[in-house]
Amino acid sequence: MTDPARTPTSPARFGLTEARGGEHLRAAGWWADRRPTEGAEAILWALSRSPDPDLALRGVDRLRVALGDAWAELDEALRASDVLRGRLLAVLGSSTALSDFLVANPARWRSLADAEPVAAESFTPVLVAAVEGLTGADAVRALRLEYRALLCRVAASDLAHVVEPDLPYVSYDDVAGLLSDLAVAALTAALDVANRQVPRSDECRLAVIAMGKCGARELNYVSDVDVVFVGEGDIAVATRVASTVMQVAGQSCFEVDAALRPEGKAGALVRTLDGHASYYRRWARTWEFQALLKARPVAGDEELGQRYLEVVRPLVWTAAEREDFVPDVQAMRRRVEDHVPLGLADRELKLGRGGLRDVEFAVQLLQLVHGRGDEALRIPTTTAALAALGRGGYVGRTDAADFGRAYRFLRTLEHRLQLQRLLRTHLFPADDDASALRWLARAAGLQAEGGLSEGQVLLAEFRKRANQVRRLHEKLFYRPLLQAVANVPTEALRLTTGEAAARLSALGYAAPDGALKHIEALTRGVSRRARIQGALLPVLLDLLAGTPDPDGGLLSYRRVSEALAETPWYLRLLRDEGTVVDRLAALLGTSRLVPDLLVRAPEVLRLLADTTALVGRDPMAIGNPLRSTVSRYSDLGRAVAAARSLRRHELLRVASADLLGLVPLRTVCVSLSEVWVAVLQAALDAVQRSSGEPLATLAVIGMGRLGGRELGYGSDADVMFVCEPHDGVSDSDAVRWASSVVEKVRRLLSAPSQDPPLQVDADLRPEGRQGPLVRTFESYRAYYAQWSELWEAQALLRARFIAGDAELGARFLEMVEPVRYRPEGLDAVAVREIRRIKARVEAERLPRGADASLHTKLGRGGLADVEWTVQLLQLQHAFKVPSLRTPSTVRGLRAAEEAGLVSAEDAAALRDAWMTATRARNAIVLVRGKAGDQLPTTGRDLAAVAGVMGHQGDPGEFLDAYRRTTRRARAVVERVFYGS
Questions:
Q1: What is the pTM of this model?
Q2: Alpha-carbon gap, residue 623 to 646, rounded angstroms
Q3: Nearest of 250, 194, 247, 254 to residue 219 by alpha carbon
Q4: 229 and 139, same structural domain?
Q5: Which residues form the PII-uridylyltransferase/Glutamine-synthetase adenylyltransferase domain (predicted)?
Q6: Coil, strand or helix at 749
Q7: pLDDT tens digits, 510-530
Q8: Is there a contact between 554 and 544 (Cβ–Cβ < 8 Å)?
Q9: Where in the sequence is the domain holding 923, given as residue range(s)?
Q10: Are residues 311 and 343 in the same domain?
């Protein structure tokens, strides 16, 4: 079958796909006898280059019908003039809205035939003349018609070179300037109407100040026009004039937005010059000074507008010195990120990652910081300001040029998208919308190349430019700072260290001078390592600025980098894995425990790239690889060192996953418990192998939080040791041998180390610290039968075999069953005794000066309150409720609820408090790098702990929430435990 596009006699040859294309061509007189008519081939080739040839041809046909007998004049002009061909067919193939305008006003095609380029100086006279003597609806109609006609001329000049490549190319900057000048002309005409329409308008003076894109002469085809009004004389009259200006312009041309005025929409529409000055000096926030960067008088009283600038401009350049500059800058960044529509971030030209706002925010912040001392930076237009930053050395010249090209490309796409229907949009087409991508590519002047279609070329270019914008955004924020501290001689960059420190301070670094020293140390020299660090630091500095402790995070990053300087894959991993950089910054800027571990367990860094590996295996099986690895070592020292190393690895892995919010609390506690068990088992096995012929079997019984698989990062390991002599061995020899093994294990595990301590606590054994460290099985039986105290029965509630001989451990637990789960439960005397002991613990063990409402362990509604309450219920009822026989606090509480011993509401209050206190206690260790039970109440430690707990706002709200949770639990404890 013949391809119609390759058939000389087919309209498809000219890019037409619609069935009626030939019919429209014949009606226009451009096609006959299966070929173009004489003189029409140039028109058809121009039509084929239109962004959408079918759309353009439909527009031509509609225009032909609208013109009637006058079509012949347009036909002749199109055949003769490449200027008219380029302009008209470009508009008809790009914009349905402007096609509708031309069809409704067919004689307006003549304005596109003028060989002279559109002149901005003609806009105001044309629009003012259009409304001369008119008011009300008549003025609105006249202004709308002339404004749309001029907009059509701007668009025609903008697009013509796409259709006729020999026509002049009009740059984005020139188009944006023309659109801004057209908007100013419309405001001037609207003010002319308002002055006629509002009575006594001569009794006031009014200046219209353009803000935003109009003020910067970088307006879109479809934008709100941001303005501020300043008046003198009768302000009430001036307000009516301003309101009428907004109404007339809004109904005819574009929305006029005055929300950038002092106090926003709640403020007065018009203020005097003194009113503006007073507000900006006393009340304005940083974002308002950022907006004033682009302010320019455009209409009304010129002298008043100029005086307004003279008042506000000096204030703009002191914004960076304001006390609240740092939180304001951070708030502005959060607002930008929060406005990205969910699921559309990759397609948002304006707010998405690598979008237009990235460029504008970076440039404006650099201007606010450095424009104080360099008047050459005080330029409202983004592209011009960027060029000035490059010329001044604040940005590398090449980077400034690349950033400017990417920005212009994205703005051009935005213009083309808005032209299509004259609707405000910033949304790039979806990847699978081939027709929309093809149209936009052709409208932007892109062509198929290298086997890729126009749409595919556009998609690749868009992604490339968006990535370039994001990378350069990060680089422009920080690279001059890096060059200043590294003292690299260069013509392109001459930012002073003081200015670099000011920029760091603006981003939230409390000690910018110290941060500069860290950056200098990391980037010093010309080695490959320094170059990679130079590429990484712009990203890391930005990420660390969003953490609770940017300064501590940067110090930790320097420590980690220096410790791993000779690790060949370290910097390569950071360079190539964006996820690793994101997660590492979050960890280092929050935790002091993580960097301490990381310098000795760097292999965990690789896991940050793989969420599945970081989360890890079943926490119940976490210790198996550790035990297997250690068992291969015959040398005791190497075996224990291997156990410590693997424990360090797992501790860092769990802490990282925990801080990143990837694992629940139960997984954290079980993992930490099982790692401890595995280390203890491995050390015990290694010591026994090195101790010659064993004289006894030995079992380790986990107690407390270890027994309940509820260890935290700062928990000791509570244990008891039980042995049984081998045949022919006396009890005393067996105990002596077992004690030497146990002492050696404890000594090896508690040896000084930079790792978190491995404290083996045996104080819960019979007779406490006064009793023997190891007893035989029969000794335990005799003791518990004759001498056991109530507190020992309570301690046994959480007993669990964890290491050594499993058969001996099982027999021990069976033997203590009637001790901890008393067949008769507790009598009133025993209950009073437990309550007395608990009250004494509260009175004596809470540290002096501690805030009982914020002590996670011994405070009101804390861990001890919940655990003692559950244990009392177990002692009272476990003999008849088997489900209560568990070493786990959480499971014991659930069993008590299911048995009806506590209400669902009370159980929930206790469970919430226990989990909150456990998480908070863990957070304290993660943040501070050492164990602690008291929550911080101020400073960055509080912010970090609150962040780990999931509270990203005011840290004080976290403390309030913690107190509320524990207060509810304490009320339950008073009723259930104390019987109040």
A1: 0.61
A2: 9
A3: 254
A4: no
A5: 332-477, 838-977
A6: helix
A7: 888 888 888 888 888 767 687
A8: yes
A9: 828-976
A10: no
